[in-house]
Amino acid sequence: MPEEPSSSDRAGLLCAVFLRLSPDANTNADLFPNALTSDDVSSWVKIDEQIISKTIRATSHEISAIRRRPDFERVVRIEAATHETTILQQQEYLDRSGYIILPADPGKQEKCKATNNSLDLLFGTNIEAQMIGQGSIYMWKASLSRDQVSQAESLDGVKSVQPNLHNLNRRYIAGRYYIDPLDRENQEQCAEIGTSLARLLGNDNFDPHISVLDGKLRKWMADLSNGRVARVKAIHGVKGVRPIQRGRRCRLGMKSTNGLESQAQQEIRYETQLGAPTELPSRHTERRKKSVVTMSLTLGRDWDEDDNLKDFTKLFQYLFDMDVPLVCISGNFEEGFEEPDVDEYPPLMEGPDLPLIVVGSVDSAGKLSEFSKGGPHVTLHAVGDSIECLPRDSKDPVERAGTSYAAPQVAGEIANLLSYEKVPLDTSDGNLVKNLKAYLQSDAASWERYPGIRVLWNGVREENNQKETVKCNGLETDRYIEREEVKHLIEDEFCPEVSSSRDLRPQNSAISRIYNMDTPNKVRLSVSLSQGDSVSDCVKYLMMTVDDCYRVDNDPSDYKGGGQTIIGDATYEVYPGSLRSPSRYGKQAGCDSTYKFTFNEYWVWGHGWASSDHGKALKKEIKGCALLPDTWKFTYGIGEDGREWTARFRTGVFQKSCIGNAVGKTSGIDDFGCAGSG
């Protein structure tokens, strides 16, 4: 029994077919009607020099045949989606990728608009113009097949078509999503989308969002799995699916005029409570003119729907009326953009009547970061590229970059300025925020390290950070110390003593200590300064004297000659005090054993280790090798073979392997063994 034909096979689907006009495509549009069961709905229309289009009614089998034509470009179904067409749309969607289309000359908007019309005719809802300012087009975002990429590139007015790397390999995760219609004003189409959603998700698994302002359906909210996101996006009339940001539900702290809580109050979610910025200054009047709010968040241009823009304008203005400035980011742009200006909220709201302080990012040299949005809305920049951060779940620093790391630096400097006993700007009621913004853009608070890129400056000059002068001893005199030993002395003994005694010492006095007397690691540490020192500065500059004077990469001996560092009126000195064997010998060890029938006698010597403790660590290890009582003798003294000390002792017989292991463990020399008998 033959299968019952589907409704689309019986009546056909209303479609717009696009064919390529190319000598290689063997296009024969005149024969096209012969392939159809139904009559043509319209005549051929020339889209541009290479594309023609025609509206037809065709069955699903006829559409499949049309797709196999060598000149086939694309087909767009015009009728409302049924279950069958939804499946076809899903497959077509999954075969596409995200692209960015750049105009040849964004400065010529008439040409951009003509290009926009051609793209709209070719790709319909799969393309979206991106605009800034007063509706100026600076690029398009599109979901295209490979063939369509070539077609878009061939259009007059298109500079290039690039993969949208920001969304490349994007994977949706299960969660709650907004579903946006293509045309909110077309409520009939919105109702059809709702029917399709009910069929796909079930009536109880999605919620319509009705505007309290006009009673119109605006969007839907639904819990979607990874697979269902793509299926929902393929429904005819759906513009996009976007995740709902997780965070605390926030309140704007205001009511709409009709006494109902606005949808913006119900749905906007952030990591912080939005009422907090206005709550503290309003309750604590002493905090006015001494507070600053920073916001590292941007929202798309469609954010102005449902009175969001109006409500947040009131919120920001309320802050400014309390003389509380607000710092926000200019935003980061996606790869593939060509230096776009600010095009999102809230930085797009900045203006003479709403003096937001908008912050962009530069690198440590003052060069504009590649990701930082610019344009006239940007107030100034701070370093946001790159920033070393310490994650909450790790002790290992990581590097991060973004305008979100630059804005808090500006907010911090504002807090410093407002805390001064004499604030360097007019802070009279109602004038603080505007005057502060002007001050930040002046040479007193920022400067142009690159033309047109004004960077935050905290007023510190070279004379405030005097350059260190380091004088080095070198290793040529054979007076040196082992780094780990002197580091221990500086961090654990000398600098803590310097800090604890600073209030007891006369001004301009010095403190000096000698450590490791009568050993190769004898060293004198000294600090001379006007009035005390912190432990951190003491360690910093003494270790600078140690490390900056002699450094050889991958040098296992790590010997240091010390020297002197002068910074301002402070002097830091590290002076080794013992004449040693030449440093070129590095770390050495020797061991010889003699069998004496009832015991073994050993001679062990070394250089570059056991240089401070008179052999205590070595003796501790050798005790486990049957060390005989009252036989241990350790003396420091230089020898022609490079030795700096010698140890003599006796053990029970057959302990040579044990002694070799003990020497190797104490010295850090691998695969060490003793020579001799026994």
UniProtKB/TrEMBL annotation:
<protein>
    <submittedName>
        <fullName>Subtilisin</fullName>
    </submittedName>
</protein>
<dbReference type="InterPro" id="IPR023828">
    <property type="entry name" value="Peptidase_S8_Ser-AS"/>
</dbReference>
<dbReference type="InterPro" id="IPR000209">
    <property type="entry name" value="Peptidase_S8/S53_dom"/>
</dbReference>
<dbReference type="Pfam" id="PF18647">
    <property type="entry name" value="Fungal_lectin_2"/>
</dbReference>
<feature type="domain" description="Peptidase S8/S53">
    <location>
        <begin position="287"/>
        <end position="421"/>
    </location>
</feature>
<dbReference type="Pfam" id="PF00082">
    <property type="entry name" value="Peptidase_S8"/>
</dbReference>
<keyword id="KW-0645">Protease</keyword>
<keyword id="KW-0720">Serine protease</keyword>
<keyword id="KW-0378">Hydrolase</keyword>
<dbReference type="InterPro" id="IPR036852">
    <property type="entry name" value="Peptidase_S8/S53_dom_sf"/>
</dbReference>
<dbReference type="GO" id="GO:0006508">
    <property type="term" value="P:proteolysis"/>
</dbReference>
<dbReference type="GO" id="GO:0004252">
    <property type="term" value="F:serine-type endopeptidase activity"/>
</dbReference>
